[in-house]
Structure formats: C-alpha cells, structure tokens
Amino acid sequence: MGETRQIFRCKDLRVFDTIAAESQRLINETYSAFVQGFMPTLARPEVDVLEGDAAKARQVLGWAPEVGLEALAAEMVDADLARHRARLPAA
C-alpha cells in the first residue's frame, strides 16, 4: 500500500516546478539583480531515500491515507505559498 520514492526522483512531481517558478518570481520581485548575486545557493540533501512505514498506524489506529504523495506535496506547497504571500508587502 505504501509508496517509495527516491529523493532525486521526487523532481518528477509537478509541484516542484511550481515551487521553482514561484520562488524565482518572488526573488525577482523582492531583490535587485545586484543583491541576488550575493545570495547563497542551497546544497542538495545528501540522502537517497526517506522511508517510513505506516503499518503500525493502520493496525493500531485504523488509519488510512486520504491522499497520495503528489496531492500531499501540492497541498503543502499551496499552504506555504499562501503563508508567504500573506507576508509580502502590497505591490
């Protein structure tokens, strides 16, 4: 019932295209090209697989997932973007 994805394969999720595009848009709107030249780049994680097992939650709690990985990731991204947009000054 579970789903395993390697970190480098998660880039296949469409939400990461949204994250990249929205992040770049916000950076371009917020910082000049000069300032952007001094911004650090973030290193990629040094891990191949993050793995969890929901069997105990199913057995003990009767829990079952309501959404798949892609829908969950999209929901998380949408919530983060809404939170960050609310902090931006009005244009």
Written overview of the protein:
- The chain is mostly helical.
- It has one domain.
Query: How would you state the average pLDDT, rounded?
Result: 77
Number of strands: 0
What is the rounded Rg? Answer: 18 Å
Based on secondary structure, the structural category is mainly alpha
What is the CA–CA distance across the termini? 46 Å
**How many helix segments?**
4
Question: Beta-strand percentage?
Answer: under 5%
> Could you say which overall geometry the principal axes of the C-alpha atoms support?
elongated
Largest sheet features: none
Q: Element order, helices and strands?
A: HHHH
- The structural domain count equals 1
Task: Provide the low-confidence segments as ranges.
Answer: none
Helix content: 40-55%
Oligomer: single chain
Summarize this entry quickly.
By secondary structure, the protein is mainly α. The chain has helices at 15-30, 33-36, 55-61, 69-87.
